[in-house]
Amino acid sequence: MKIAILSRDATLYSTRRLKQAGEERGHEMQVIDHLRCYMNITSHQPKVMYQSQPLIDIDAVIPRIGASNTFYGTAVVRQFEIMGVFTANTSMAISRSRDKLRSLQIMARRGIGLPVTGFAHSTKDIDGLVDIVGGAPLVIKLLEGTQGIGVVLAETQQAAKSVIEAFRGLDANILVQEFIKEAGGMDIRCFVVGDKVVAAMKRQGAPGEFRSNLHRGGSASRVRLTPEERSTAIRAAKAMGLRVAGVDLLRSNHGPVVMEVNSSPGLEGIEKATDMDVAGKIIDFVVKNAAPNVPNVPKKDKERDGIKY
Ligand SMILES: Nc1ncnc2c1ncn2[C@@H]1O[C@H](COP(=O)(O)OP(=O)(O)OP(=O)(O)O)[C@@H](O)[C@H]1O
Ligand SMILES: [Mg+2]
Ligand SMILES: [Mg+2]
Asked: Single GO cellular component annotation (predicted)?
């Protein structure tokens, strides 16, 4: 099978591992920089061009699209979909997962456990917003934040008010969330491929830090999931329409709650913490599903979210 990895950098751990796992299984693997793809959108003859040549005979693509290239990256993935090429994640699911607020709304509709979360536009509504999440302590998150930057724990009502006002004064969009204190600075990354959790790790924040991000000094290790955690992760990925997903959970005393769902989850942390061949699981899934008679975009996906295409 001929499989393209859409990645900006062939030297990244995740990209290298996917290439290696594919080659080990006898597939022809090509790393393609999606920002260097250009497209012929014409009806009947849709094409993706790369290095002046049309990309032909590709059986499947594995998108590894960074958050800063979502717009162009998903356009390239969509073009492959139009050409009938199987994709590990659809363009629609990737776009959807990039918006934290929208993701939470989609999961809420499916009844998936979430931290109690509030969102408002006007600072005139701060008191009501704080009431929604049951008052301080609470967590305030910049919608555009990553790697734990822009996630703040406000211990008191007054601190919460000041931080919210400051963020809104900068015109930043923020979420306000119930603080899951009992998680003790630990979150769980569930790596979902197809309808299975193929690996899971816990990340523990540095002492005195409520954020578990490895970029903030957290450390990762293998974890055993409860059946409820496992099914929550699978349902979250499904609700988002993602075939490959990193689902982040917190252990709350009202059960597992989903913090976010990532459409290009990194392989390095999870493979090193668990000693699992996660890249191999992704390749096996793609190969199984890229068979010619499997529809490219499932019917369910086409109708999800009220969008038809
Ligand atoms: N409501 C919460 N209660 C307790 N801890 C939380 C809560 N929300 C976030 N955290 C902690 O803070 C960390 C960072 O939060 P989150 O994952 O939402 O943002 P981020 O990591 O900056 O975003 P991204 O993962 O997209 O880069 C989480 O991994 C978790 O450990
Ligand atoms: Mg996170
Ligand atoms: Mg994320």
From this structure: ribosome
